[in-house]
Amino acid sequence: MKLEEFKPVNQYKAINWNEVSDMIDKATWEKLTEQFWLDTRIPVANDMDDWRELDDDHQWTVGHVFGGLTLLDTVQSEAGLTALKEDVKTPHETAVLNNIQFMESVHAKSYSTIFSTLNTPDQIKEIFEWSDTEEYLQNKAVKIANMYLDPSQDPLKKKVANVFLETFLFYSGFYTPLYYLGHNKLNNVAEIIKLILRDESVHGTYIGYKFQVGLRDRTEKQQQDMKDWMYNFLYELYDNEEKYTHLLYDQVGWTDDVLTFIRYNANKALMNLGQDPLFPDTASDVNPVVMNGISTSTSNHDFFSQVGNGYRMGAVEAMNDSDYDVKDPNAGKDINACD
Ligand SMILES: [Fe+2]
Ligand SMILES: [Fe+2]
């Protein structure tokens, strides 16, 4: 914020969770805190045998898919949630967005947990160089980030950008681990992705809901303009996403299936925003192996459904001296991995 825009406050109000004006804030807070997780609890090293069986082309796709996802979660954890917090209706919304922002940092970090297990230092370096420079990946990251970063941008459009990222643009990447999960491969990597997907599903629904609440206050003309803009923006993103998908998947021959999957998810993004679907693709058009990866996962794809992921928080117990007896990390043991 520029100095001349600063207006000092003469009062600051404490957040009161006993007076919640929008119950969706409270329900979302409870849902998100209930499903809290950390990447360090998933034993990715157990996937090494599956990983070694993949040929170079498939390993390349997996590594670069996760490079792309790292970039998108970085955008969300930095510019994305910072922008959304500029336009809240309730203090509880800020609290929910704080939770989301932290989890986006967990998501962004969790891919590094995967890289550090599966990839060599040289491969990791190459993946990050690729993510920071690849044209179609940068196109989508920059398009969304510039919506967030522009202080003159309509806050409702920032919410649209957010939902498009959460519910649409991630899915060209999510396809790969779900595909392997459907084939009973890379199950621990997939577990991380399922936990991310479960979070993104709540994030997309919540921000979509806040968008719909905000849109109701606009005139009919403004609502129509917003709708026109939204569909154009989606087309623009889809056009780029097609090219990105070819780049990632042509060499393994999955491109058409991935494109069906992302059109299906683009429709879901529109649904979160209270709009009609754009593409004819439905769940029955998506590769059943991938749908199986979603449905046999214990992750939920619907807001407020019961927390059902296989991941469990550790039972809480008092610490004692032996808790400090950690193994020597130089001995090559992962001290964080659970059994
Ligand atoms: Fe995320
Ligand atoms: Fe998210």
Automatic annotation (TrEMBL):
It comes from the Bacteria. GO terms for biological process: deoxyribonucleotide biosynthetic process. The active site is at Y111. Fe cation 2 binds at E104, E166, E200, H203. Binds 2 iron ions per subunit. One of its GO terms (molecular function) is metal ion binding. Its EC number is 1.17.4.1. Pfam families: Ribonuc_red_sm. It is an enzyme of class 1 (oxidoreductase). Fe cation 1 binds at D73, E104, H107. It catalyses: a 2'-deoxyribonucleoside 5'-diphosphate + [thioredoxin]-disulfide + H2O = a ribonucleoside 5'-diphosphate + [thioredoxin]-dithiol. Transmembrane segments: none annotated. Keywords: Deoxyribonucleotide synthesis, Iron, Metal-binding, Oxidoreductase. The keyword Glycoprotein does not apply. GO terms for cellular component: ribonucleoside-diphosphate reductase complex. Its cofactor is Fe cation. Tetramer of two alpha and two beta subunits. Provides the precursors necessary for DNA synthesis. Catalyzes the biosynthesis of deoxyribonucleotides from the corresponding ribonucleotides. Belongs to the ribonucleoside diphosphate reductase small chain family. This is Ribonucleoside-diphosphate reductase subunit beta. It comes from Limosilactobacillus reuteri. The gene is nrdF.
